[in-house]
Design goal:
- Keywords: ATP-binding, Membrane, Nucleotide-binding, Transmembrane, Transmembrane helix.
- It holds the Pfam family ABC_membrane.
- InterPro entries: AAA+_ATPase, ABC1_TM_dom, ABC1_TM_sf, ABC_transporter-like_ATP-bd, ABC_transporter-like_CS, ABC_transptr_CydD, P-loop_NTPase, Type_1_exporter.
- It is found in: Cell membrane.
- One of its GO terms (biological process) is cysteine transport.
- A hairpin with a 2-residue loop joins strand 4 and strand 5.
- The protein folds into two domains: about 1-195, Up-down Bundle (ABC transporter transmembrane region fold); about 215-415, Rossmann fold (3-Layer(aba) Sandwich).
- Helix 1 (about 5-35) packs antiparallel against helix 2 (about 35-80), helix 1 (about 5-35) packs antiparallel against helix 5 (about 160-190) and helix 2 packs antiparallel against helix 4.
- It has a five-stranded parallel sheet with strand order 6-9-10-3-11, sandwiched between helices.
- By secondary structure, the chain is α/β, with parallel strands linked by helices.
- It is built from twelve helices and eleven strands.
- It has helices spanning about 5-35, 35-80, 85-90, 95-145, 160-190, 255-260, 300-305, 310-320, 325-330, 350-360, 380-390, 405; strands at about 215-220, 230-235, 240-245, 270-275, 275, 285-290, 295-300, 340, 365-370, 395-400, 410-415.
């Protein structure tokens, strides 16, 4: 959607400014030579503007429908590719192929409607442009030949007539360029509706590590959602305490972590640190999610994402704390071993340990862990739990988990029910 804004900024906005200024300059220059010719140009402009307004409204509606059809087709295709084994298992190839074909046909129909409106608006522009030049030419020719059916309102010389005829085509030239770029405007407006508005930057107040963290009657309700993800949650976390949020999927565990990171909306209630309102812990918290982000590069580069200024001593400390040493010893290159963005060749537990080491590398008093042991086998889960129990010492830790075994190492367990 962001790419659709390029044509609007690069082509439509300059063309709109030119279309607002250039015709007036041409009209003023024409009036200096022949006010009648200037009046003819202005008279053809009024119905042209009315036609463009009508065509523009129709184009906006059709462009919006085309964008919806494109989004529907791309989403359906991507979803069916991801679920291809399921489609094949249930022998639904023909049905899904037909559904994708219908979505593609709908997009083709919408595209043709957009083109039809574009051709109509282009035809209207060319008609009025040709009409204005023709009327000016007829007036100038008849005036020079003395064939006007009425008394000439002005004396028109050959030089003035030639000047007016040379300027007449330029009157609609900026509007032609604007019409050519008008589709960029429609595409940008349609795409902008799908973009998430960017709010004002949040000023993050420094948090004292020894301060308790208080959540009072917190409600998190995402825009467009029927029910709140979290409702009236009150929680106090003491400095250095490890708290586990335990509950089923949809109970709001991840939403609480996202709230502390400034990624979820605080609909009601308050979050305080040391008695002062807190907008976000993002600058003072380390975070490791259940789907660790990896980049193509070395393991060292992946760890340094959390703290680019970290030295080798800090890196080694984080590696040891996260239990990565055995894995690094097995891989040629150690920290400088190259991995891809998918973590090919790494087990689920190894990817989680890289994420944990990255979180520990950041010198932050708060540690937030989102399902750090999800989808691991029993042995890998037990090993990672033992690592977390040691690595989290000295940090205020909040863990969202399904695992009773992981929750058992916490100093306190807070159970969240199903989302209301």
């Amino acid at each position: 959607a962001v790419e659709a804004l390029d044509g609007y900024v690069a082509r439509f906005l300059p063309a709109r400014r030119a279309a607002a200024i250039a015709p007036m300059l041409v009209l003023a220059a024409t009036a200096c030579a022949s006010w009648v010719a200037a009046l003819i140009l202005a008279a053809t402009l009024l119905p042209f503007v009315a036609a463009m307004i009508l065509a523009g409204g129709a184009a906006a509606d059709e462009s919006r429908r085309q964008f919806v059809a494109l989004h529907r087709l791309s989403a359906r295709f991507a979803d069916r590719v991801r679920a291809l084994p399921v489609v094949l298992a249930f022998r639904a190839e023909a049905r899904e192929t037909g559904a994708i074909g219908a979505a593609a046909q709908e997009l083709a129909d919408r595209t043709m409607r957009v083109l039809r409106v574009a051709f109509l608006s282009s035809a209207a522009l060319e008609f009025f442009a040709a009409l204005s030049v023709a009327l000016v030419a007829v007036y100038c020719g008849f005036s020079l030949l003395g064939l006007l059916p009425f008394t000439a309102p002005e004396t028109l010389t050959l030089g003035r007539a030639f000047f007016v005829l040379a300027l007449a085509p330029e009157f609609y030239s900026p509007m032609r360029r604007l019409a050519a770029a008008y589709h960029d405007k429609q595409a940008a407006e349609t795409a902008a509706d799908t973009l998430i508005p960017i709010g004002d930057p949040v000023r993050v107040a420094p948090v004292v590590a020894a301060a308790p963290l208080n959540l009072r009657d917190v409600t998190i309700h995402y825009p467009g959602s029927d029910a709140p993800a979290v409702s009236n949650l009150s929680l106090r976390i003491e400095p250095g305490e490890m708290v586990a949020l335990l509950g089923p999927s949809g109970s709001g565990k991840t939403s609480v972590l996202h709230l502390l990171l400034g990624l979820a909306p605080l609909t009601a209630g308050s979050v305080e640190a040391g008695g002062a309102p807190l907008a976000s812990l993002a600058g003072q918290a380390s975070w490791a999610g259940q789907h660790p982000l990896l980049i193509a590069g070395t393991i060292r580069e992946n760890l340094l994402l959390a703290h680019p200024q970290a030295d080798d001593v800090a890196l080694q400390r984080a590696v040891v704390s996260a239990g990565l040493v055995p894995m690094l010893n097995r891989r040629p290159g150690g920290l400088d071993a190259v991995i891809d963005a998918r973590g090919s060749g790494l087990s689920g537990g190894e990817r989680r340990r890289i994420a944990l080491a990255r979180a520990l590398l950041k010198p932050a008093p708060f540690l937030l862990l989102d399902e750090p042991t999800a989808h691991l086998d029993a042995a890998a889960e037990a090993a990672l739990i033992a690592t977390i129990a040691v690595a989290a010492r000295g940090r205020t830790t909040l863990i969202a988990t399904h695992s009773p075994a992981l929750a058992a190492i916490a100093t306190r367990i807070v159970r969240l029910g199903a989302a209301a």
